[in-house]
Amino acid sequence: MATKTVDRPDLRLVEPSDTSEDGIAETAAAEAEGYLLYLDPRDLLGHRGNLRRDLGDLSELQASIAAEGVLQALTVIPESGDRFRVVAGHRRTAAASAALDAGEWNPAIAPTVPCLVRPDLAERPAEQIFAMLGENDHRTDLTVSERSKGYAQLAAFDIAPSEIARRASIKVEHVKAAIRLDVMDDEVKAKADAGHLTFDDILALEEFEDDPEVQQRIVAAAGTSWGVRHEMATERRKRNDKVRVAELKAELETAGVREVAKPKGWPYESKAVGVARLADAGGKPLDVEAVKTAEGFAAFIDTVGSPEVVYVCLDPEGMGYKRPNSSSYRSPEERKRASEKREADEQRMVALNVAASVRRKFIRETWGSAKAAKELLEEATRAAATYPYDLAARNTQDFLAVMAGGSLDNLATARLERLQRMLVCRWIAGQEEHITDVGRMGYEFTKRPHQAIAWFDRLTAKGYGLSPAEAQLYEKLTDRVAQIAVEAQQRAVAERDAQLRKAAEVGGGDSVVFMLWPVPDGDVVNWQLVAGDGEHIDELPGDDVAQVQQWAAGVLEKMEFEATQWVEKHDEASSTTYYVIEFEEDDGYADEPDAVDGETDGAGGEPDASLSEPV
């Protein structure tokens, strides 16, 4: 085996044959620090507990080592028979061996690698693991599952998670999560290595240990880390709903209320009617508390949204009660669709509410401190100056208080920095309020879909992942933007035509009117050149009015109209500025082209004078 020593001021090489008192002491000290040897990498033994499952692509590392050698010493421990075992540096060992075997090694460099020999680690396997964990091997760090394997091995040596955390400089909770990860299946480990499962996620999975199917569904959602968190929130809501249903059932039983299944066709097609919607023969509304245990009355637990008790009268007509009058007739098909829509809307709102709990946790983590909130100060100030309604947070007061880090009272004496943070928090709460309102009322009714889209875009740009319900809402909002653009176009054309009719009436019958009218098309304005009779001549997108007028004059010039002066007009109803130009009728071109010399009217007579004179 090729062995070479080297002088280093920080490492001493002590001959083990020195048995004097000083020699023994120096030997012990040297073993604690280690000593340097240059060894043939092909003679080194791999560690039995190597944390790396895959050495990865070594091609670049091999080329670098072949040219320059190994620059950072490997950590090895002595074995019997003058052999050495690698503790840290398995990738460099493999790359150097491959370069030597391939004949790529630089002949100017000795075919050996520097090895820091640590006799003190030979009988201390736990310390060997710590050495592996502390190794950043040629800038290729250990994967999450490889580190987890190391922490689990340390725990097997009865080293407390707190001590592992201290030595590894990580949170104790993350050590515990890593140890849990080591016993999970390869699918979970792969998702952790890909960054789709964090240590916090793995700890949170403990909540569902009693239900492996739920755990499997959560892990299956780990396309992104946020997919896991949204799925956890959904499963947590389902679990809480089950608990709540059991509580409600117990309450009904204790109160002596008869529980029934949800009536078929509820609420529009069922024979049963909610007590809250019924009146007696005299028109007086029924008192739920007074009748809920009476004969002919019952209750069911509605689980479409959040679980709630619904008290019903099973046969209102037979008991002489009045159903509520419907304001308009609806066919059975319409009632069925209405019922299905109601259920779908409630389920959508539940999903959006669950997503909101995850989203708001992300918001708190991102902008919940005074320092982080400054990032949004300019945007919040602009909203306060231009659209203060954005600061309204009627239904998000609790969230606002959490974001603000305390009470919203006594702001009258607060310092500027505190007031600025409050402004940002109110603006954030206003954005969340808008998202909630859009989800509750339906995207098709919002007049400001851009606001909700911009808020979702801001969140995703900071690393948030939308839940399926949020992604669907985002898509619907995008459709709403397109719909609003179409509606704006239609209104603009209708307003343009109305102004054309007005201009024609004012101009009289002996004039020709042309109009430049702006029609929005998304972020672009198309200027339409239109004749007085409504004929669309041409259009040009642009923001420079003078340039558009020059273009229109060129179009009219080809039609033998000399456009010299455009008159600016303003339509108050639509707040639209447009431009009009008017010509006397004989200033322009004829409807038909001039006749060619000698051309007749087609009947064999004289040339048709009407074809050679302006119309």
TrEMBL record:
One family from Pfam that matches here is ParB_N
Coiled coil located at which positions? none
Question: How is this protein annotated for GO cellular component?
Answer: chromosome
Q: Which InterPro entries match?
A: Chromosome_partition/occlusion, ParB/Sulfiredoxin_sf, ParB_N
Q: Which residues form the ParB-like N-terminal domain?
A: 37-137
List the residue ranges of the region (Disordered).
Answer: 1-20, 322-344, 584-615
- Ranges of compositional bias, category Basic and acidic residues: 1-15, 331-344
Gene3D superfamilies given in the database record: 1.10.10.2830, 3.90.1530.30
Ranges of biased composition (kind: Acidic residues): 584-600
Please name the GO terms of the biological process aspect recorded for this protein, alphabetically.
chromosome segregation
| PANTHER family in the cross-refs | CHROMOSOME-PARTITIONING PROTEIN PARB-RELATED
What is the designated name of this protein? ParB-like N-terminal domain-containing protein
Q: What is the lineage of its organism?
A: Bacteria, Bacillati, Actinomycetota, Actinomycetes, Micromonosporales
